[in-house]
């Protein structure tokens, strides 16, 4: 059985495929190659792959078209886009589709190897996080924390209790809220929070997009409790902080 990470290269340029394949094999990876998007999809329907390196512009299916199919048939597979025709629009579209990285040709071999290593590490971290969600929670994870104003947070039940009211959180919301309440006043970067909450590393461009809807949902749920309202504060260009409760007006 081959335990090496399996990488698929999809590029319509033969020299590009061969050169990158040789580099990655020397790094110890199991490498397969195809010449276009349709062949990439056909290969992925049959063979499990850890990471795909895609040329953005290929005859027939584009790299972004392949990305959308991969998200359905192998959602745990990481993707890196390589292109000689970069644009802000295609970069944003790639990030929206959870592409790990977006590199412009000609990318240095060391840069490609490094981003592939990071992509594989991110995949492993995400798989571990998903596995841990299926494991029976430990006693420590069942912690009950008491906050100001008589608020009780039960992380085992993912619930917040206050004056007879109960708010229920999703698993991701509960993980985010726990990071905040256990680190009041500490500023976290977007990337730190994605790693702590979702279990994988995100790029500087991707991390804010991942967090924004999650933070928005959590803020909405906390609005009904005055002692928690407006305490999740955006730190411009950095991330978020959970602030100390505001002093009562006398």
Give a short overview.
The chain has 250 residues and is of the alpha/beta class. 42% of the residues lie in helices and 20% in strands.
Secondary structure: elements and pairs:
Layout: E1 6-10, H1 14-26, E2 30-34, H2 37-46, E3 51-55, H3 63-73, E4 78-83, H4 88-96, E5 101-104, H5 109-134, E6 144-146, E7 152-154, E8 159-162, E9 165-168, H6 171-181, E10 187-189, H7 190-198, H8 206-222, E11 232-235, E12 239-242
Parallel strand pairs: 1-2, 1-3, 3-4, 4-5
Antiparallel strand pairs: 6-7, 7-8, 8-9, 10-12, 11-12
Helix pairs in contact: 2-3, 6-7, 6-8, 7-8
Task: Give me the strand/helix succession.
Answer: EHEHEHEHEHEEEEHEHHEE
Largest sheet: 5 strands, parallel
State the secondary-structure class: alpha/beta
Low-confidence stretches: 132-141
| Head-to-tail CA distance between termini | 71 Å
Beta-strand fraction estimate: 15-25%
Can you list the strand order of the major beta sheet? Answer: 2-1-3-4-5
The helix content is 40-55%
Instruction: Output the CATH topology of the largest domain.
Output: Rossmann fold
* CATH arch. level architecture of the largest domain: 3-Layer(aba) Sandwich
Give average pLDDT, whole number.
80
CATH H level of the largest domain: which superfamily? Response regulator
| Tally of strands | 12
Tally of individual helices: 8
Number of domains: 2
Features:
12 strands, four-stranded antiparallel sheet, 2 domains, Arc Repressor Mutant, subunit A, Rossmann fold, alpha/beta, 42% helix
């Amino acid at each position: 059985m081959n335990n090496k990470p399996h990488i698929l290269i999809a590029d319509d340029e033969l020299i590009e495929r061969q050169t990158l394949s040789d580099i990655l094999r020397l790094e110890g990876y199991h490498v397969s190659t195809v010449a276009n998007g349709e062949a990439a999809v056909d290969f992925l329907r049959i063979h499990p792959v850890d990471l795909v390196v895609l040329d953005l512009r290929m005859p027939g299916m584009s790299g972004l078209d392949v990305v959308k199919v991969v998200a359905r048939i192998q959602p745990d597979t990481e993707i890196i886009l390589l292109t000689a025709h970069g644009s802000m629009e295609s970069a944003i579209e790639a990030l929206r589709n959870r592409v790990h990285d977006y590199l412009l040709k000609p990318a240095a071999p060391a840069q490609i190897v490094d981003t592939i290593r990071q992509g594989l590490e991110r995949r492993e971290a995400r798989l571990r996080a998903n596995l841990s969600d299926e494991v029976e929670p430990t006693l420590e994870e069942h912690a009950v924390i008491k906050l100001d104003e008589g608020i009780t947070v039960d992380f085992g039940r993912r619930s917040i209790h206050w004056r007879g009211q109960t708010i229920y959180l999703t698993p991701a919301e509960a993980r985010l809220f726990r990071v905040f309440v256990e680190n009041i006043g500490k500023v976290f970067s977007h990337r730190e929070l994605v790693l702590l909450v979702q279990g994988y590393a995100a790029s500087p461009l991707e991390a804010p997009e991942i967090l924004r809807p999650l933070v928005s949902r959590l803020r909405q749920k906390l609005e009904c409790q005055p002692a928690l309202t407006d305490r999740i504060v955006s730190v411009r260009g950095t991330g978020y902080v959970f602030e100390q409760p505001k002093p009562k007006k006398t």
